[in-house]
Queue: 4 jobs
Job 1
Amino acid sequence: MGVSFNGRTNVSKTLYSRSSRDAPAVTNQQLVEKLIFDKVLVTPRIIKAFKAIDRKDFVLPGDEDRAYEDRPLSIGYGATISQPTTVAIMLEKLQPELGDKILEIGTGSGYLTALLAKIIGGKGKVFSIERISELKGLAEFNLRKYNFRNAALFVGDGKAGLAGYAPFDGIISSASGDEMPESWETQLKIGGRIVAPIGDSLVVLDKASKKRFKEVKYPGFIFVPLR
């Protein structure tokens, strides 16, 4: 998933199996095929977005030949673009739909932002918060390659969310905290979903009512801390 708002990313313990495809991916299409083959990507609209958004457009100059590796890559300022498997898992858990309003915690180079913008379409909106202003600038540059008009980027504290634009249909973060920020729960609409790491688990939180939530944990992940 995109990088965390502190400029770093999580790395899932789940990597694609080299036994499934011996040849490394050298194109975006091959990367997507690996994720489909390993059953990481399963939802048609999410697959379509992965095919349309080329990861090479979100890595630093000089790293183009590594863009399709299933691992995080440095984007400067101590930050990385997230591992494709991790991004795919989190989007499959979030299940964004056409017209949704999504809050992303951590813009990084804009890769997850672009995927979200593609999935939710022109009537939807992505609001993304990044702590490091230089990375916001990098993401803006990268997103212009796709002429998106449904993504708004902000510099700020991701833990606080964006109350002025709430409620959100979905909230997604890729940095781990000890507990879910109350601001996210408040800013999520009833019927909405949060996908975020808590400790070493990926947590999916569905808001059933103003004060009632349904939580499912998926253990076995490694994430950087939420700061």
Job 2
Amino acid sequence: MPILSVQKQLAHLLAQMHKLLSRVREGAPTEELRLRKSDAVEALNTVRTMIGADRTGAFCSTNQHISALIYYYKKKQPHSYESDINDLYEDDLPGVVSAVETWLEDQIDPRLLRAVRKSWDDQRYGNAVRDAFICLETVLRTTAELDGSAGLSGDKLVTAAFAPERSLVGRIPSDGFMGQLTNGEVKGLEYLVRGAFLLFRNATAHREIAYSAGEAEGVINIVNQCLRFMPAEL
């Protein structure tokens, strides 16, 4: 699931809508606005599809008000489409943003999102992967109550964090999407975290890898899966 790409697509939608409404205010040619409407609706539907929303609520009303706006603009009736502009700004677009934010809350750990956002927005995808693993290391140290000055990282950190005498295993939430983990599943989680470090973290830390956006996002999603089994921010 393209978690980070949803934010990028939302930003694209808002930019399309801002330009459309600005050009309406500037009295742009009808043909230009027709094309801008098509781009905005396409961006709207892409966001809706990406988060699995239906055609009701804010997505539906946004589509309706865009169509009404262009319809009355062609008829040169600003008094008729002024309310559509107000509805788009005050209700529809904030509603779409809220729907995306709600979806994101269920998809990505907020600690991870904060960690990778700057590098991701700058399209420095290798750095975003590094930032993701730094975030995971920090969460493991905090949850397992490990002394940061010990300098443990990567595979050694995972070994220490999942040691029986540490608190990490006991803090794995029992109300997560998989419920209470069995001993074997806890071991599987350890293997997942360890494998992610050995394969992706180590390679990215030791050499430059030209990640594409899709490749980096796939790795970051693995880190996100690991974080889903960790307690929320302590």
Job 3
Amino acid sequence: MPCEPLLRLEPSRALFAALAVALLSACSGPPPRVANPTRPLDERRALEVIADAFREEREHPVPGTDVSLSAQHRLHVDVVAEGKRFGVAYVTASERAQLEPALPARDPKMGDALQLVSGIGADSDARVCVLNDADYLYDDQVGDAREKSTTTAELKLRRDVRDFLVIAHRERLR
């Protein structure tokens, strides 16, 4: 006596059932990993790191002043070397929005090259390293699954400031 299958599927139903099984098995894996949200270093902490980098390069850091970039725009230089006309400005998103017309655009081909600007008029001898807070991001997630830690962001900031100071010393900026 021949055996009859208990369930007969037509070809179109069989294809539909196979597709449904494939879709369900694909959805049963772990959810895709998404990047942790990041934020820039707090300006107060960034200024501490900048001042420490100045001291490491044997410069005495003092609070900066404003430097004219154009007739309408002044850049606040956060930290300068005492008695000298070079310093660092840690620029936040709101400051960037106000200064956008006066700051030269960053060339994407230059990667993370330092952005140096000079003042105009009475400030023409001032050299400023403009550091964007968006370049020093970290996540504050706890555990091993981290994008970047605060230490990584602070070390990058310290490196960039020290690189600028090496340039300032090499070019004998006063």
Job 4
Amino acid sequence: MRIEETSALLAKVQAFDNRNVDAAVLSAWSEILEPHTLHDCLAAVTEYYRSNTGWIMPAHIVERVRAMEEARQHQFKNGCHLNPADEDKIFATGDSESWSKAMRALNRAARTGVLTPAAYDAYQSGDEPLEAFLTRKAIQ
């Protein structure tokens, strides 16, 4: 999550608990929440305040976002795998680091909801590399 997104998140938090938000608070929260999406973090804040009256901390958000991400990942019953086009391209270069990077990107897309099970099926049945597929999907 970018610093601007963290600012938007903290504005929502501030609406609930009236906390003071300054540059140091913004920086600290941004550092912890950086790997997560604004959409998920906003949902986590809403979920937290539905049943809690105490101050929310980044750990509360991270805990809820991880649960959301795990639930999304479990939608892929057999896990996520690169499509044959990506596998062939990476195998031809013999670059195991590229394979690891592509697998991280694929799993991250699944965990954040960028890649739904239906979109994953389309990716698997196509011959488009993951990066191009995700870019095209984001534009649609």
